[in-house]
Specification:
The chain is an alpha+beta fold and 133 residues long. It has a single domain (13-122), classed as Aspartate Aminotransferase, domain 1. Helix content is 27%, strand content 26%. The chain has a six-stranded antiparallel beta sheet with strand order 1-2-3-4-6-5. Strand 2 (36-41) and strand 3 form a beta hairpin. 31% of the residues are buried. One of its GO terms (molecular function) is DNA binding. This is MmcQ/YjbR family DNA-binding protein.
């Protein structure tokens, strides 16, 4: 089976900003999976770009993340957020970064997602409150 085509531009300014925030988290790494950048700390906590569940709509500048369980319902009511294809059934949500310039909020979403999958030793290295981007 041929590899997935690359579906992002390494010089994309939104990806560069997202990468800066995600890779500042303890032990975070980046790799390409299914043609898109994914951020991991053991397990995947974020992906850049993806489709919308139930449609063929691509959001190449979206952040896919695992929402904090206590905030998921509120995020689902916010029109900026959508359920991503493939990862949506596992509780993930997404927000298109091209429509939102609130990088403090993006940093908080990444922090919450990271805290749900990272090992305890990595979480222990985080400040108690997420840093502002």
């Amino acid at each position: 089976m041929p590899p997935h085509p690359i579906m992002f531009d390494q010089k994309d300014p939104l990806l560069l900003r997202l990468r800066e925030i995600a890779l500042a988290l303890p032990e975070a790494t980046e790799q390409i999976s299914h043609g898109r950048p994914v951020f991991r700390c053991g397990r995947m906590f974020a992906q850049y770009g993806g489709g919308e569940k139930g449609t063929r709509v691509r959001h190449d500048t979206a952040l896919l993340f695992i929402p904090d369980p206590g905030e998921k319902a509120a995020l689902e009511q916010d029109g900026r957020f959508f359920v991503p294809a493939y990862l949506g059934p596992y509780g993930w949500l997404a927000v298109d970064l091209s429509a939102d310039g609130d990088w403090d909020e993006i940093a908080e979403l990444l922090d919450a997602s990271f805290r749900q999958v990272a090992p305890k030793r990595a979480i222990a290295r985080l400040p108690s409150e997420p840093e502002q981007a």
